[in-house]
Each structure stands twice: as structure tokens, then as C-alpha cells.
Write a structure and sequence with these properties.
The protein is mainly alpha-helical and about 325 residues long. It contains 14 helices and 3 strands.
Length: about 325
């Protein structure tokens, strides 16, 4: 089931209205951040391709240094192409749009970078890389790390995603299709969403995530497992490549990794609650589980052996294999 009543302009308007502008910086500081991110994104291309041993085209997917409003608009453009709504305004559609807009406003303050594979092909056929400058500047300040080192570190991770999707174009379509299936399992007017609203607004927050509100069927479970497995591979691979490159080009990489991991785990109060409700704890597990899988496979068969995972949908690891890499290695030998 999709959300035919969803009014995407309401989502965009709500998100833009609610999203804070970001840290206050001077014009010179803002220009330096933009210049650094553009340069480091270019520099990261060769470093990632060499380390990952993946031959990817260069400059086929644009790099966009964005503020929070630009990030919101880009994601509404992409998500509305994935899950079309209705042009006319209805009460249900406006409410659904406002709900999604609130989520996007919150996410717009958290996301450092994103490779957007859902962008309409007419806008960017190979996807686009978004680097959210206000969030990167805010994070490096909060962490107390060297700004240039941190900006390059972020670019290495996000550039790995660009390499993944441009070197293996089938992967973009595969992920789009999986996302469409997941979107088809949700309904903003469904009882689960209404229950979530009641829990948050009137009854206190239980140990619940949005995943718990999806129908409990075999199809839903298998779909979510496929999506979780591929996202674990992509995020874990990006973390591993970033860490393999880092010591060669980033003087303070050890400090950055340590403080960033502490930041991932240390969200207090309401922020932690919202992250759990949105399934962000699952996202963090994907980084760690995927990285463990990649390190195990690299230790066994080298990074070229790991790259077999990107050859086709059939060679992608299953979720059980992410947690038990030996099973994937055995399947690849067969």
C-alpha cells in the first residue's frame, strides 16, 4: 500500500519552516568550508578508487555542497519521485506531508553527507553527492577536531558511496526497487502511524520504532532483511575504506574516529528517543555490522574478494551472512 494522499509541497514547506539555519559563522568561514568540501570531494575520488580497488568513472555524479534547506528540497524531490503524492490539497495529504516534513527537518540537522540514488534520472542520471556544510561545521566544532581533517574524513566516506553506485550502476536500480517495495508497505493513514502519534503526543514513548509499525508478514520481514543487508554492506564498506585511507592522509584520524564514535553513542534525552523511533539505532548497527563483515572478508580473501559482493544482486550478502561472513565466503566458493 502506498500513500496516495501524501502532499509533498506540505512536507517541503513544513521541513523548511522547522529546520534551524545552522551554526552562525562568518562569510569567510562559510566560504572556506564550501571550498574545502568541494576540493576534498575531488581529492577523495582517487584515494577511494585506489584503496577500494574499484574502477569507477569520475565526475559523472555531481557534488553539491548544501545548506539544510537545499538538503530538504533535494530529498523531497527524490522521495516524491520514489513515492508520488497528489497535487491537490486534502486534509489527509496535508497531515501526512506535515508528518514527513517534521522528520525531514530533524534529519536536516543530523546528516553530514548523502549519496542520493533516488534523484530523478533527468536531474542526475548517476545520482548526486550531497555534503551538508552547516552540519559538518557544527560537528567538527562540537567534536573539537581539526576542521580540514574532519572535512576530508567525511568526504572519504561519502565518496566511497559515489564509487559504489557509479562503478556498479545496477546497484542504484536495485536499491531504488527495494525502496519502492518498502514504501509500498507503509501508509501514513494506517493505524500504526496513528498509534505512533498518540504515543508521542499523549502517552509517553515506549520501546518502539517505526519498523515495529509495519505489518508483521513474511514479505515485510524478508524485504526489510534484504534492505538491511545491502545497507550494512554499503555503510560498512564505506567506513572500512575511509579508515584504510585515513592514516595516510589525515593526521588526526584516530582522534576523529574515537570522538565521532562517542558522539554516535552519546545522544541524550529526546534526541535518543527520536533516533530510536526513526530506526536510527538500526542505521548505526548497519555501520558496525557491515564493517565487521567487510574486515572479515578482506582478512580472508583480500579487498578484491570483497568486491565480488558488488557484482550482482545474487552476490550481495544476505542479512544472516552479514552476521556470519564465513557463510557468504562459502557461498562464493560454490
Amino acid at each position: 500500500m502506498t500513500t496516495p494522499e501524501l502532499h509533498w509541497p506540505a512536507a517541503a514547506a513544513t521541513a523548511i519552516r522547522l529546520a534551524p539555519p545552522g551554526p552562525r559563522v562568518g562569510d569567510d568561514q562559510a566560504k572556506r568550508a564550501i571550498t574545502d568540501l568541494q576540493r576534498f570531494a575531488r581529492d577523495a575520488q582517487g584515494l577511494v578508487r585506489e584503496t577500494a580497488r574499484i574502477d569507477a568513472p569520475t565526475d559523472t555524479a555531481p557534488v553539491i555542497v548544501a545548506d539544510r534547506t537545499m538538503w530538504v528540497r533535494a530529498n523531497v524531490e527524490s522521495l516524491s519521485a520514489l513515492v508520488p503524492g497528489r497535487a491537490e490539497q486534502t486534509t489527509t495529504g496535508m497531515l501526512a506531508g506535515a508528518q514527513i516534513g517534521g522528520v525531514l527537518a530533524w534529519l536536516s540537522t543530523k546528516v553530514l553527507g548523502q549519496f542520493d540514488v533516488f534523484v530523478p534520472s533527468s536531474a542526475a542520471p548517476d545520482g548526486r553527492l550531497l555534503l551538508v556544510a552547516p552540519n559538518i561545521v557544527q560537528a567538527e566544532t562540537q567534536l573539537g577536531v581539526d576542521p580540514k581533517d574532519f572535512r576530508l574524513w567525511v568526504c572519504l566516506h561519502e565518496e566511497t558511496h559515489r564509487v559504489q553506485f557509479t562503478a556498479f550502476p545496477w546497484l542504484r536500480e536495485h536499491l531504488r526497487e527495494q525502496a519502492r517495495v518498502v514504501a509500498g508497505l507503509t501508509d501514513m493513514a494506517a493505524p500504526g502511524w496513528q498509534e505512533l502519534a498518540r504515543i508521542v503526543t499523549g502517552r509517553g514513548v515506549r520501546n518502539l520504532t517505526l519498523l515495529d509499525l509495519l505489518p508483521d508478514t513474511v514479505d515485510v520481514k524478508s524485504t526489510l532483511e534484504r534492505v538491511t543487508a545491502v545497507m550494512s554492506l554499503l555503510e560498512g564498506h564505506a567506513d572500512v575504506v575511509m579508515d584504510r585511507v585515513g592514516p595516510r592522509v589525515i593526521r588526526s584520524v584516530g582522534q576523529i574516529r574515537s570522538r565521532f564514535e562517542t558522539r554516535r553513542d552519546g545522544r541524550p534525552g529526546l534526541d535518543r528517543i527520536v533516533r530510536r523511533l526513526l530506526g536510527m539505532d538500526v542505521k548505526l548497527a548497519q555501520y558496525r555490522d557491515g564493517a565487521k563483515f567487510c574486515r572479515h572478508v578482506i582478512a580472508a580473501v583480500g579487498i578484491e574478494g570483497l568486491n565480488r559482493a558488488f557484482e550482482s544482486a545474487e552476490t550481495l550478502p544476505l542479512l544472516a551472512e552479514i552476521h556470519d561472513p564465513a557463510r557468504w565466503l562459502k557461498r562464493m566458493e560454490a
